[in-house]
Amino acid sequence: MFLIFGSDTLATRIARWLGKRHRVRMIGLAESIQSIDGVEIVALPTEMDLAEMPLPDIAPTAVLIFEEIICDDEPVKMLRNYWQNTPVLTTFSLNGAELISIEDLTASAIESRLESLERREGAMEILQYLRSRENKTAAIFCHDNPDPDALASAYGMQYLCQDLSIDAKIYHGGMIEHQQNKAMVNDLNLELRRLILGWEVEDIISSVDIIIFVDFHKAGANNILPEHCQPHIILDHHHLEHPVAADVAFIRNEFAATSSLVASLLMHSEITMTEDVSTALAFGIKTDTLGFTRSFNAVDLRALSWLNAWASIDRLRKFETPPRSMEVLQSFAIALNNLSIVDGIIYAPIENMTDRDSLSQIADFLLQTEGVESVFTFGARRQKIILSARTKSEDIHLGKSLSQTFPDGMAGGHKQVAGGQIPFTFLDSESENEAISRMHEHLKKLFGGLAIE
């Protein structure tokens, strides 16, 4: 049961809400207290000491004090004489009680509501933009070597465009190598076009009506697009360091995954969902939040709950457990053989790397090592050092630190998850071994002193 002292508007509202679920006794002044269904009402003629009040015989789950109607000099101390371990909550300063700041709660509720309105406005701007371009063409670009979040987001946008009579195709640079990514693409029969040559890219961006970026916001940074390419629409959840140029930019870093953002957009569109699209987006959310354990927020939970009505659990499991290639196992062996641990940080360079997507798998695996706070795995591929970084430390922001050290989109990401592609030329290196060694030195200089012991 709950015991409430006071009968102001807030006390009455809380009592009415609690009364639908629990036994509640409300003690207040007769001149202001109201009858409430399901709530025991005790009307006092005036303020008085606790000893004079009709208190319950059993210990309450919590005591809530909304008004100063207890005359004892130390009301909380007196309450402890009755119920030593019962929490006491109050909306005003009272010695020994847990203060619930109405101002803070109100501000938080207003901020949350305003953010919700901002998200809705952003979604409606994109929908209005697309609806006004019926029978047009669109190119949806993922970043290089797209992960499930990028692939699912692009797929969701393609589905929306097609529903609005826009012919949309998905493009990416790099490779799709991770076993999970391949399983997802094959199961969903995703129609993707890999771009390699500059003239291919120029031909596409000059021929379509709408250019859409998903899961990135800067042309030329970890994507095959030329730096001069200006998109019409951007959908991304990554931290924004500089203003972006686009007709409509829907960039919200409170989302842990761009798939959540796209799901929110589809919710507002009232489109008829399919199992394929819902399963893809749910998988995008799950992988980008490391199984809902990393930066998973209320907006992501809402998106996932909505998608759950159509998503296939069996297919999600199928995506998660594809066969692991021998190339990945080889990269694991090299990483385990080469790794070093310095002040709670693992550095794992990988020579002769054949599967770049093995880096993220190795980083996630090593982060679970006892006493380890951060992991950096890196190897060479096509005259670039590919980096995957993870941390559990609250004192490090990987994305910001890496983007400041390796600017212009060479590296970046989130607080606890980041990565990069750093050219050999930036590292003043000509060979693979030299570039790996220089990268190792950069990382130790940047993060060695920030590690948590």
Q: How would you describe what is shown here?
A:
The structure is a single chain. The chain is α/β, with parallel strands linked by helices and 453 residues long. The protein folds into three domains: 2-100, Rossmann fold (3-Layer(aba) Sandwich); 110-320, inorganic pyrophosphatase (n-terminal core); 326-450, Diaminopimelate Epimerase, Chain A, domain 1 (Roll). 39% of the residues lie in helices and 19% in strands.
Short description:
The protein is an alpha/beta fold and about 450 residues long. About 40% of the residues lie in helices and about 20% in strands.
Keywords:
453 residues; alpha/beta; Rossmann fold; inorganic pyrophosphatase (n-terminal core); Diaminopimelate Epimerase, Chain A, domain 1; 6-stranded parallel β-sheet
What's the structural blueprint in terms of helices and strands?
Blueprint: E1 2-5, H1 9-19, E2 24-29, E3 39-44, E4 62-65, H2 75-82, E5 88-90, E6 98-99, H3 102-131, E7 137-141, H4 148-163, E8 167-172, H5 179-188, E9 192-194, H6 198-207, E10 210-214, E11 233-236, E12 248-251, H7 258-269, H8 275-288, H9 298-307, H10 313-320, H11 326-338, E13 340-342, E14 345-350, H12 358-366, E15 374-381, E16 384-391, H13 398-405, E17 411-413, E18 417-423, H14 432-447
Parallel strand pairs: 1-2, 1-4, 2-3, 4-5, 5-6, 7-8, 7-10, 8-9, 10-11, 11-12, 14-15
Antiparallel strand pairs: 13-14, 15-16, 16-18, 17-18
